[in-house]
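Recap for those who missed Tuesday's class. We walked through two folding examples back to back. For each one, the amino acid string is listed first and its predicted structure tokens come directly after. Nothing is annotated here on purpose, so try labeling regions yourself before you check the end of the notes.
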Amino acid sequence: MATPEQAKQFYDQGYLIIEDFLTSEEVAEIRAQTQKIVDEQHNPEDHPLTTFVGGNKQKTDDYFMTSGDKIRFFFETDAIDEQGNLTKPKMEALNKIGHGLHILDPVFKRITFSEKMKNIARNLGLKNPAVPQGMVILKPPKIGSVVVPHQDSTFLYTDPMRLVGFWIALEDCTTTNGCLWFIPKSHTDGITRRMVRNPEGSDPPTIFRGEDRVYRDEEFIPGEVKKGALVLIHGEVVHKSDANRSDKSRHIYTFHMYEQEGGQWSSENWQQPTEEHPFPSLYSFQ
């Protein structure tokens, strides 16, 4: 997987689409496991109805800040009424489930640390990548929220910046249900903004440092893919996804990895390794 030509394309363009990466059976297993997790693990006692807004408008709270090594549930803002009640079934209301799926759930762990994933990382030249987080993003019908233009290294900063997102389509992703859009080669310009832990305390727990660039719509090109496709996302490439106002959901599984060899995970990042769950190495995690 990921031929030398594809690896070159990734580093040249800032992203790479590999169709038919997962089989239809693997995709079905992930989707069934997602449903099982929602049915069996979400309850009001342990999980408040927390909403999530992605991209550079992201807001945080303690439930989010401590989610890195847990399975937690984040809902779309438009799925909760003024009284704080869900207005839709959970699978049609959830924005995402994260961020410890890759270490806590056996199905997601097997997919994340599979030989196929390891081969991709090796072919990208990663010597000792660690996987800090994994999540399912559901982008439900009618209310799936927009993700504004952003760079992943804004939120998950390493020095030097060697971050790669692995983004797996669990359904067909089109311009109508919220596929990714990219600005090709925008990863060569660095980043101008970071989300960091608030040095003044926990209210709010994170702040943004630096200024956003302004991007024109015509700079973006769509990354439509079929279910089972893998999209590799350079940590500094500018990308976005539009709101989903269609009748179809857009389920995906995504995780990030960064190069540990010669690299440092920033202590200012919102997510930090814990004593119980240090960030696992892709090549050796059991």
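Example two. Treat it independently of the first, because the proteins are unrelated.
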Amino acid sequence: MACLIANDFLMHYLWDRVSTARTPADSEEIYILSAGAKSYSGWLVNSALQFATECCGAQGFRSTNRFAVMRADCASMLTGAGDNTVIVQQISKYILTLYMRQVREMTSKDKIHFFGPLAHFNRQPKQTARFDTLQGQQELLQWRERHLYELLTTSITNKAAEGMSRFDAWNASLPLALGLASSWFDRVTHDVFTKAVQQAPDNLKGILTDLCTLFCLSTDEFPANSLNKGYKPPLFQTLEAHDFLDDVLNRVAPYSEQIVDSWGIPEKCFPQRDLLGGLN
């Protein structure tokens, strides 16, 4: 649910970007963001439907659940307008191209300084950052993206030096390319979610902060990927990760029904509500 809410904030942000005047650079970024939104939204919806089906056990394909129909409708989201795995590679290519474009614009006397979508490449995660703050989460997501970028470029360079063509080197490094694309999209989505939290009424900031944290915890290979690569946020040095997660979930649990109802799903789509005595 936290991922769906994060995705909803991102879709509103993307619509606002599309609806306003923009430069050619803006259009390029919007196109890449759209490619990521199409792919990751498709995977998210299909994953949610699979999870919902399994939660119903032997009743998963019962007609009143409507899961079978929704799964058939959403299957096209995986390949429509292009296979998602191919589409998201455009994100990695965009990051590499943007990096080289900005490097070429620097002179030998310039201090390395990135701008625009790569501005966070100028910063390193602060060792004092705590994962239980949105700022700390942003820093760790930025670190993961930069680290995967370095792994991908190193892999392609080494394989090319061994005699591989650039095309074959890219394909041989595909898991890293997909990881870089995922880390970029996760960071952008988290940035949008964080801004939404900051702009929310005071009475909603707490629950939205917890949902943003749950989204961050659910991102691909996170936090395991980061913790295994040398950067351990102080929270995980002082607290057990599962205790922290339990605290967040316990704060969110009382709002579960309101969170579901906030989507405005018609009551007739909840035939099990009466059978189960309500969502509680």
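Answers for example two:
Residues 44 and 134 are 22 Å apart (CA to CA).
The two ends are 16 Å apart (CA to CA).
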